[in-house]
Design goal:
1 helix, about 5% helix, about 80 residues, mainly beta
């Protein structure tokens, strides 16, 4: 059974991340990111860069023109949520 992607969120990774869905933005010490996939124990994202503002084709995917980074169980701890 395939998950219903519009409703898939990252709340199972960390309860305060339930607002994160594919296409949502978040920050960490390394900048602003867009969620591209949510797994059982990981979250994948692409880092927003200035060139993406002037050319949104960078955000078309998958596959994306920039590398997707996988946030594992330890990296997920670095995700900042509103109010952190």
């Amino acid at each position: 059974m395939k998950p219903n992607l519009p409703y898939l969120n990252a709340g199972h990774l960390r309860s305060d991340l339930a607002h994160l869905k594919i296409g949502s933005h978040f920050t960490n010490g390394g900048g602003e990111w867009i969620v591209t996939d949510i797994g059982t124990r990981t979250l994948s994202a692409i880092k927003l860069e200035p060139k993406m503002e002037s050319d949104p084709s960078w955000l078309a995917g998958p596959p994306y023109a920039v590398a997707e980074i996988v946030f594992d169980e330890d990296d997920i701890l670095s995700i900042e949520t509103p109010g952190d």
